[in-house]
Design brief:
Order of helices and strands: HHHEEHHH
Shape: globular
Helix content: 40-55%
Structural class: mainly alpha
CATH architecture: Orthogonal Bundle
Radius of gyration: 18 Å
Number of strands: 2
CATH class: Mainly Alpha
Largest sheet: 2 strands, antiparallel
Length: about 160
């Protein structure tokens, strides 16, 4: 076990929208340390979202992200030789992280041409409460609801 908790890193806001959440999202998009490419992908996606919806792209993105962010998850716990799926609340930092990773992961699996288009498509789908990332959240909530009987095993 570690002696002390690691210090929280300070994340600077992004240059265009001046938002820390955007920087966190871009850091999740980034592959192999190519941050400028990740920013380009995100900003291209925002332009496409603005074009498709006709609304403020950052608001659409934030609402879409909130809609794919799960509130509960199931955790495995061994009790007396049996493994139970126990529903548990998710802390806020992990919630956002899971939401972002789902949104990015499922946008990578889409069949548009560029990553910007894929991401924009998934953001708009999440905003409309459809798409793979939203389905994943619904599935997570269903699993937690189905295993509600084991919630008294919570640790």
């Amino acid at each position: 076990m570690r002696k002390a908790k690691p210090k929280k890193r300070i994340i600077l806001p992004d240059p265009k929208f001046n938002d820390v959440l955007v920087t966190k999202f871009v850091n999740n998009i980034m592959l192999a340390g190519k941050k400028s490419i990740a920013y380009k992908i995100f900003y291209d996606a925002m332009d496409i979202v603005a074009e498709k919806t006709g609304e403020d792209p950052i608001d659409v993105w934030k609402k879409g992200l909130a809609k794919v962010t799960p509130a509960v998850e199931v955790r495995s716990r061994r009790i007396g030789g049996a493994t139970f799926q126990i529903p548990a609340e998710i802390r806020s930092g992990r919630k956002m992280s899971i939401g972002m990773k789902n949104l990015i992961g499922f946008s990578r699996k889409r069949h548009e041409k560029t990553m910007g288009e894929k991401l924009a498509g998934e953001i708009v789908a999440a905003y409309k409460e459809e798409g793979a990332a939203f389905k994943k959240k619904e599935e997570t909530h269903r699993m937690a609801d189905a295993n509600k009987a084991f919630s008294h095993f919570r640790f």
